[in-house]
Amino acid sequence: AELAAKGRAALGTDSRLSGARDLLEELRVAADVGGLDDPALESLVTSDAARLLRLLDRGTLRAATRADLLILPAGPALAAARRASVRLVMINGAVRIDIDPTIP
Predict the structure, then answer these.
(1) pLDDT digit string (tens) for 73-104?
(2) What is the Cα–Cα distance from 67 to 84, expressed in whole angstroms?
(3) Nearest to residue 78, comparing CAs of 49, 47, 104, 40?
């Protein structure tokens, strides 16, 4: 929590063999263990992560940046989001909707 408050932490995923199922689950763990609120969790996977990794075209919504987006319903806490909560995924400006995860 201390590193996150200073913008010195990022959150990502690794192998499903050694880590959580997905990034949403990693966010739940960070909220539970670190006591982080939604703004802090969001920064861990967006602006702080991009800045720490020196990815200047990511982590924020502005012109000339990469359009990678995850859309979730408004209201519930970010740490409460599940795969079924995902409404839309956009990768590099291309819309991808995960209706059936078995379809490639």
Answers:
(1) 888 999 999 988 888 888 888 888 765 544 34
(2) 22
(3) 40
Of 67, 77, 75, residue with least CA distance to 31: 77
> pTM here?
0.81
- What value does the CA radius of gyration of the chain take, rounded to a whole number of Å? 14
**CB contact at 8 A, 40 and 4:** yes
Nearest to 33 by CA among 56, 9, 60, 57: 9
- The predicted-structure confidence for 39-70, as pLDDT tens digits, reads as follows 999 999 999 999 999 999 999 988 888 888 88
Contact present, 77 and 28 (Cβ < 8 Å): no
What is the SS3 assignment for 50-65? HHHCCCCCCCCCCCCC
Half-sphere exposure of 57 (CA within 13 A, CB side): 7
